[in-house]
Amino acid sequence: xxxxxxxxxxxxxxxxxxxxxxxxxxxxxxxxxxxxxxxxxxxxxxxxxxxxxxxxxxxxxxxxxxxxxxxxxxxxxxxxxxxxxxxxxxxxxxxxxxxxxxxxxxxxxxxxxxxxxxxxxxxxxxxxxxxxxxxxxxxxxxxxxxxxxxxxxxxxxxxxxxxxxxxxxxxxxxxxxxxxxxxxxxxxxxxxxxxxxxxxxxxxxxxxxxxxxxxxxxxxxxxxxxxxxxxxxxxxxxxxxxxxxxxxxxxxxxxxxxxxxxxxxxxxxxxxxxxxxxxxxxxxxxxxxxxxxxxxxxxxxxxxxxxxxxxxxxxxxxxxxxxxxxxxxxxxxxxxxxxxxxxxxxxxxxxxxxxxxxxxxxxxxxxxxxxxxxxxxxxxxxxxxxxxxxxxxxxxxxxxxxxxxxxxxxxxxxxxxxxxxxxxxxxxxxxxxxxxxxxxxxxxxxxxxxxxxxxxxxxxxxxxxx
Length: 466
Prior knowledge:
Elements: H1 8-11, H2 31-43, H3 54-67, E1 75-78, E2 86-91, E3 97-105, E4 124-125, E5 129-131, H4 139-155, E6 161-168, H5 179-185, E7 194-197, E8 202-205, E9 208-218, E10 220-229, E11 233-234, H6 243-256, H7 265-277, H8 280-288, H9 296-303, H10 306-312, E12 315-323, E13 329-330, E14 333-342, H11 348-359, E15 365-371, H12 382-395, E16 400-406, H13 412-417, E17 422-424, E18 429-431, E19 443-445, H14 446-464
Helix pairs in contact: 2-4, 4-14, 7-8, 8-9, 12-14
């Protein structure tokens, strides 16, 4: 397969004199002002799948690094598509230990102006929040990593190992133009002892920090289709064998079905620590999840919460419908896409067999359409946990660090499968009851942005000092 490689030396030709598509870069004296300017630029560069601005965004980040004194040889932009560039920037350390990798994606999901109360591609703000698509997912971490590289350089910080920032362009669409392409075509650039990624957030309850999570594992994305077909006919002569009815009955069966409980080692530690930060019945319910068998009362109470239920089992939900061909004709075909999030270690063929049994109608066709690759959890080592716990205690005394499994997919699975332990941790605190990732009026507390900035500055320092 032919690929078009966009080389840094070409894309940065304008940057070498301090210019890019955004104009001249002047590094602000204030660290927080620098972060704000980088964050604003990323938010206001529309990097949805429908646009072709991803390379423009990473060129902009390269321009900031170039203005701060990073050499061309330490900045790479490349990818198989000219508009889907990825950035790899290296801050060189004194030792020869394997680097640490700081990774984030700069692509975002679509946001329509009519669906929002403000322009999703302008960094809007009020007294407490920044608003805009990507303010949390994942341009906050991307901006923080770039700003911190610049801060290390002007402070003269000398790590004992390289710090490598990787910004990718194709995480949200699940394509092969981002981390997958880099791993396949430039694996040497991504060699590292471990990677820090998205997937873990701090949890606020009633405005106060409750816990700081670190993602150790993630569920696996998989798509299935359920299709009903029959001969159709004129709508004035309805029959019992209607494709839409048949499909609807199948989907209701899937709705009623619950996959078996699967409490893995990561979540056992998570539930133990969640019991510690809760009180009363809720604390007892989390402890009950460690029992075998799990008491039905505790399981039923916790399963009512979507976030907890999704960590307890594989889930399946219809997400797309397509049926019929005319308003005055009986449908000949009706199809639903069923999105499944499988527990780590699951086999999609086992899930397929389960869905066929649940639908229980040999006239319907149930097919596996593809999905992500399974990955084992990253090891819960003393090295990573001690660093995250010590920096968390330093910044938010008394806040518990909770290892967790993400119910959504990130690029972390691909890194784990490449042999690089990857941990989702950000220090970005969000209201546990108001998570707006991929949603309307996505927002991040200003205090959380700058807190995450300081947290990740310390994390990278601690990990790179050894």
